[in-house]
Amino acid sequence: MNEFINALACQQRNELIPEEDDFFGALIGEWNFEWVDQYDKETPRHVTGEWIFSWVLEGCAIQDVFICPSRKERKSDIQPDAEYGTTIRIYNARNRTWDIVYGCSAEMTRLEARRENEKIVLTEITNQQMKWIFSDITENSFHWQRIVWSNEEKEWKIGADLSAKRKTK
After folding, report:
1. Residue 159's domain spans which residues?
2. Residue 87: exposed, middle, or buried by beta-carbon count in 10 A (0-12, 13-18, 19+)?
3. E strand map for the chain
4. Positive or negative, the Cα torsion across 13, 96, 164, 73?
């Protein structure tokens, strides 16, 4: 198994990715987060989780592991829709975007990422009615949202909010 991990993981971005297209490099590392959803309820749900990002595939891609609730919390905070998933983001030099696939139990989502000002916007490519947005990225924190298009109201609605803090050693 160590040989698989050694072949997959990489310590840095491949020089084939221009620095200005390195949208996700600042996320490399381990993060704790608070997930908030169920905005349609009287009290939104708050769940703690963890998110781990790493360069992979000779530094031409970034893969993550998304765990909500966190490994520690999963033992006591049972959530019927808990996720243990992974995303792989592969740089597309042809159009200077990132091709993305997210998978977890019984779900597979394909997205494309582009930079929009200071935000990284990932758009679901099948029907383009869902976006994931990374914003306010600093060395030690970032914000993430899942927004969904509402046909009835003809507007984007927040489905989930996430505030992350870098884990300290």
Report:
1. 2-166
2. buried
3. 9-10, 29-37, 45-56, 61-68, 83-92, 97-104, 107-116, 119-124, 130-135, 141-150, 155-166
4. negative
Confidence (pLDDT) at 78: 82
Domain CATH for 158? 2.40.128.20
Which of 10, 49, 24, 11 lies closest to 134, judged by CA? 24
| Per-residue pLDDT reduced to its tens digit, 29-86 | 999 999 999 888 899 999 999 999 999 999 999 999 999 999 999 989 888 888 999 9
Secondary structure element (H or E) that encloses residue 2, with its range: helix 2-8
Place of tokens 């919390």: 73
| Residues 13/25, Cβ–Cβ less than 8 Å | yes
For the chain, the domain total comes to 1
98-128 per-position pLDDT tens digit: 999 999 998 999 999 999 999 999 999 998 9
Q: And the tokens for 82?
A: 């808990």
